[in-house]
Write a structure and sequence with these properties.
Shape: globular
CATH class of the largest domain: Mainly Beta
Number of strands: 11
Largest sheet: 4 strands, antiparallel
CATH superfamily of the largest domain: Jelly Rolls
Structural class: alpha+beta
Distance between the termini: 46 Å
Strand content: 15-25%
Strand order of the largest sheet: 1-8-3-6
CATH architecture of the largest domain: Sandwich
Length: 245
């Protein structure tokens, strides 16, 4: 049995089914939004509630895509290892995001928690059946996928067209906006990812990330609230530094 499979079994043993969907803090943003209370209960009955620790793998590239996940608390990092040994961070997921819905039979990237997290895990075959019986959920999932495609397009522009300062400013603004949409605290803004992970997401070096953050701090655009949080002091200046949308 693989390490990831062992993790799934371990998570299953400590899954908590006590909290009903109506108490889920991410219900407003996830696939449950379109469901009436009866269908929410039906979907809940198909879920295993996972509690994951900080820096725990959810799945790895190449693992069979037997499960899909609805993140309800915490932050998850999606990444892919390149042939030359480097890593590309594909995104940072927030409560309400859906994880692991693959077109093929295996996962194409790695998913790892950055913080303690909670998620509802569904068996893929069972979840597919629920979508067939409940098209409103399928439509909600399609809208979420469209939003993810738009996010991926913005990331492509960030990597291909923006300067180092524009990339870091855009990264901070995007995380702030998405966090605010999910009713997460934005002042200060949590940055549980490492400088290395920010570098792998923005296509910069760690030194450049640190230098740009230092410049923003010196210019009083941001202040470092801690090693894992920043406070935006001058939002207008940060938006100007992010360049064209």
């Amino acid at each position: 049995m693989t390490t990831t499979a062992l993790l799934h079994d371990f998570c299953a043993r400590r899954g908590d089914l006590a909290a009903r969907c109506r108490h889920c803090g991410a219900r407003e943003f996830n696939i449950c939004q379109a469901l009436d209370p009866g269908l929410q209960e039906k979907l809940f009955a198909l879920a295993l509630r996972l509690q994951l620790g900080k820096r725990e793998p959810v799945f790895a590239a190449g693992d069979p895509a037997h499960y899909v996940y609805n993140l309800t608390e915490g932050m998850v990092c999606l990444s892919r290892s390149l042939a030359d040994g480097r890593r590309q961070i594909l995104g940072f997921l927030l409560p309400g995001d859906f994880i692991g819905f693959e077109a093929g039979e295996t996962h194409r990237c790695d998913a790892e928690t950055l913080t303690e997290a909670k998620a509802c895990r569904f068996e893929r075959a069972v979840f597919d059946g629920f979508l067939q019986d409940n098209p409103e959920t399928a439509l909600r999932l399609l809208r979420m996928a469209s939003s993810e495609l738009a996010q991926a397009a913005r990331h492509e522009v960030l990597l291909g067209r923006k300067t180092a300062v524009e990339r870091i400013a855009s990264f901070l603004l995007d995380l702030r906006d998405r966090s605010g949409e999910r009713h997460l605290r934005t002042q200060p803004l949590a940055l549980p990812m490492t400088r290395s992970e920010i570098a792998d997401y923005t296509g910069l070096t760690i030194e450049t990330v640190s230098r740009v953050l230092g410049r923003l701090r010196t210019d009083k655009v941001i202040e470092l609230a801690s090693t894992s949080a920043v406070r935006v002091i001058d939002e207008a200046a940060l938006e100007r530094m992010a360049g064209p949308a």
